[in-house]
Write a structure and sequence with these properties.
Layout (H helix, E strand, L loop, with lengths): L8 E8 L2 E9 L9 H34 L1
Antiparallel strand pairs: 1-2
Length: 71
Amino acid sequence: MLGFQARSILALPLTFRGETIGVIEAFNKRNDAHYTENDVVYLETLASQAAVVTIGTLLIEETENAYKELE
């Protein structure tokens, strides 16, 4: 419907302490180029950081909810 066509996809899991909590995906590298090992390394770094931020956000939300319950 949107006219989007996937020509290439690079997907990596978001993992935290050995547990998969999500997936990060890159679609259609510019100029129809192929993904390289460097692309994988960069996306792995981004996925690792995103996983830490995601877990941190969830912990903050849980802490705020517990605090509200105590009030």
